[in-house]
Design brief:
- By secondary structure, the chain is α/β, with parallel strands linked by helices.
- It contains eleven helices and eight strands.
- Strands 1-2-3-4-5-6-7-8 form an eight-stranded parallel beta barrel, surrounded by eight helices.
- Helix 1 links the parallel strand 1 and strand 2.
- The protein is globular.
- The structure holds SN-glycerol-3-phosphate.
- SN-glycerol-3-phosphate binds next to helix 7.
C-alpha cells in the first residue's frame, strides 16, 4: 500500500516527505482555499517537493470546460494528476483526458457503481470518500473493499485511493482490504507515527543510562 498526503500545506508536505513514507499528494479546492494562496503556485511548489502523483482538481461543471482547465493544470508539472468529480460530465472529461495521456483521479465517489464507471472511462485513480460515508451511518470501508474487488476481478487499470480518511484505523482497515493507496491528512499521519509506549520507552532508556553515568561519576 502507498500513502499519499491529503493537504495543500507546504510545511506539512515537506515534513511528511522527509519521513520517507509519502508517495504522492492529493489536494481539493477546500484544502487549497485554506492556504489562501494562488492555486497554481501552490500546486507547482508541491510538485517540486514530491516526485509522485500530485492531484489538482478542476472546478468547471461541464466536460467542455473541464478539459481545457485540466490541460492547463497538467502543464504545471509532469506529475500532475487531474482530479475530476464523479459526474456525467466528469466521465466525459476523463475519457478525453485519458486519450490525451493525462492521468485522472475521479473524486467524490460514494458507490461502487460510480467507481466502476470511473474505472471503465479510464480513470487512473478512483477516490472513495470513507469518512463522509461513515458520517451518514454508512460503512465507508465496505465501499473501498467492493471497489478493490471489482477492479481486481476484471484486471482494470485503475487504483483505489481510500480518501476522506479521519483516523489511523481507517488507514489500517483500508490496508486490510487491499486499497492500493490511502490519502491521509497530516494529523492522521502523526497519529499513526506516535505511540505513548515508544515515548515512555525512550525516556526509561535515557533515565537508566543517566543514572549509571552518575553512579560512575561521569
Ligand atoms: O481526500 C478527500 C478529503 O480531502 C476529504 O476529506 O475529511 O473533508 O471528508 P473530508
Amino acid at each position: 500500500m502507498q500513502l499519499f498526503i491529503d493537504t495543500a500545506n507546504i510545511d506539512e508536505i515537506r515534513e511528511a516527505a522527509s519521513w520517507g513514507v509519502i508517495s504522492g499528494v492529493t489536494t481539493n479546492p477546500s484544502l487549497i482555499a485554506k492556504e489562501k494562496r494562488d492555486f497554481k503556485t501552490v500546486v507547482k511548489e508541491i510538485s517540486e517537493i514530491v516526485d509522485g502523483p500530485i492531484s489538482a482538481e478542476v472546478l468547471s461543471d461541464t466536460a467542455e470546460d473541464m478539459i481545457p482547465e485540466a490541460l492547463d493544470l497538467a502543464k504545471i508539472a509532469d506529475n500532475i494528476v487531474i482530479k475530476i468529480p464523479m459526474t456525467r460530465e466528469g466521465l466525459k472529461a476523463v475519457k478525453v483526458l485519458t486519450k490525451e495521456g493525462i492521468k485522472t483521479n475521479v473524486t467524490l465517489v460514494f458507490s461502487a457503481t460510480q467507481g466502476l464507471m470511473a474505472a471503465l472511462a479510464g480513470a487512473t485513480y478512483v477516490s472513495p470518500f470513507i469518512g463522509r460515508l461513515d458520517d451518514i451511518s454508512t460503512d465507508g470501508m465496505e465501499l473501498v473493499a467492493d471497489l478493490v474487488t471489482v477492479i481486481e476481478n476484471y484486471g482494470l487499470n485503475t487504483k483505489v485511493i481510500a480518501a476522506s480518511v479521519r483516523h489511523p484505523m481507517h488507514v489500517l482497515q483500508a490496508a486490510k482490504v487491499s486499497a492500493h493507496i490511502a490519502t491521509v491528512p497530516f494529523k492522521v499521519l502523526e497519529a499513526m507515527l506516535n505511540h505513548p509506549l515508544t515515548d515512555a520507552g525512550i525516556k526509561r532508556f535515557k533515565d537508566d543510562w543517566a543514572k549509571v553515568q552518575k553512579e560512575l561519576g561521569k
